[in-house]
Design goal:
42% strand; alpha+beta; five-stranded mixed β-sheet; Immunoglobulin-like; five-stranded antiparallel β-sheet
Length: 137
């Protein structure tokens, strides 16, 4: 029992050192996405685009446009998703519509953005495959 306690004390006292080493070994990775969202013929104002692995989030402007860029340190290659939360063509239903699109790895960067993944103009009235509802984003 004493041996286990000693090992535990040694391990926990070295935890900050181990975390620091892991951060140094992890590589900086990120991506950027931009586009314009409309609801029918009008800009979709206040929709929330979000690059998952918690890289960046924002809201669409008065023209329905957004531009996101973010980075994180990870040991493995990041898997990036563009999530969009919105209420286009939704009536009074609770929560928001949520769509997710994979961001190609060719748009990943190592801390300095080279090129945005441009989704162009998307009409969010469309029902997308795999669309969900989300109340807690």
């Amino acid at each position: 029992m004493l041996r286990l306690l000693i090992i535990l004390v040694i391990f926990t006292s070295n935890l900050p050192v181990l975390q620091s080493m892991a951060n140094k070994m992890a590589k900086l990775q990120g991506c950027g996405v931009k586009g314009r969202l409309v609801c029918g013929k009008v800009p979709l104002v206040g929709a929330k685009p979000d690059i998952d692995d918690l890289l960046a989030e924002n809201y669409t402007d008065s023209n329905g446009q957004f531009q996101l860029n973010g980075a994180t340190r990870e040991m493995s290659t990041i898997e990036t998703l563009l999530k969009i939360y919105h209420d286009c063509d939704d009536g009074i239903r609770p929560c928001q519509r949520k769509i997710m699109w994979h961001i190609p790895s060719s748009y990943h960067h190592e801390g300095i953005l080279k090129e945005y993944f441009d989704i162009g103009t998307v009409n969010m009235e469309i029902g997308f495959p795999g669309e969900e509802r989300d109340c807690r984003h």
